Amino acid sequence: MNTNPKVSKTILDNGIRIVTMTMPHVRSVSMGVWVHVGARDETDAESGLSHFIEHMIFKGTARRSAFQIAKEFDAIGGQTNAFTSMEHTCYHARVLDIHLETMVDILSDIFLNSVFDEREVARERPVIFQEIGMVEDSPEEWVHAKISPAFWGSHALGRSILGTPENIQGFDSRAIRNFFKSRYRPDRIVISAAGNLRHDRLVGLLTPVFSSIAAGNGLMDRCSPTDAGGVTCRHRDLEQTHFCLAMRGVSVTDERRFAASLFNTVLGGNMSSRLFQTIREERGLAYSIYSFLTSYADAGMLGIYSAVTPKDAGACIRLIMDQVRQLRQEPVEKAVLDDAKAFIKGNLLMAEESPENQMVRLAQNEFYFGRHIPMQRVIDRIDTVAAADFLDLTDGLWNDGHVALTILGPGVEKDDFSEAMAL
Description:
metal ion binding, Cytochrome Bc1 Complex, Chain A, domain 1, alpha+beta, six-stranded mixed beta sheet, metalloendopeptidase activity, 15 helices
């Protein structure tokens, strides 16, 4: 059996890009219709529209009702969903390879022919209000949501993808149609698919329907952010104090991204990381502690989350910052760096076995680099990272000592934590 994946790309006359990876050893196909438009591309008055459209796409077309869309996917055992990020919106599905044509027909129909009926808009508003409420009800999600405005300030990256309740209440079908028509242009659309498929067959299915979209005027300009910073506190009667720290990170295309990924792994990316071992295993201060990277086209953030007994919050933050400072000042041991490399490479290679992961990676590489980047090239770059690269990375990112903090719990005061955050 041939198990070598093959990547192909076709650009339609109107600018829509179709990228595929043939994986003949699997039985399924994952496909995503991606738009290079996200929450950061909205004005303040439009904030939440990209996410609202994501919901409304599944609410009916000229050919299908919302129920029929759901029923037809269920009838073929398919899985379908959508998501909105700061920079993209994606409508995706996964089916058995024998149902490729049906999946293409449904996804094409909802993407090109959604009616955005006013009655469905009214029915969907309370659903989005509930989604906003879920963030408020979850302490962990709340501190994650609030770290963006704490770190990015008034920039669009600091806004919630969900929008504000006031905006959601004011959006109607006309506003949704206008935003869709102006932003969902061919040069911003990538259709990616991975699995047991033939590229030429998929192109043959997609071309007649997606060629009907008139060419657009190119991508909109994006304003790059500057870091804001500060402490955001909210009192809430909880058993734990939840907090999220943020420091400057790297962009998706930054050459330092390989060092940053390894730094994140060593700091708090797995169970052998310094934060997990120090905070949980040695001190027993927290059940959950981890670090994470958030990267965009032109900026990035390194975040750290934990939840502790309220009286231990200040001590925990000081211990976290001690570990960060140590990694800034002392070269990491070769054995630790090698373990981090093995961890990342293992995760990347295992993810390659998933058509859904490959579908996502195809689209993201196309958006950010304009081409497919073989996994072996990524592995090779990870292997070249040395301990000195950690020191160079942190010197370049954190010379100004810029840190942001969001904290939620009983009796929290901003002044209690400012000193503990010092880099």
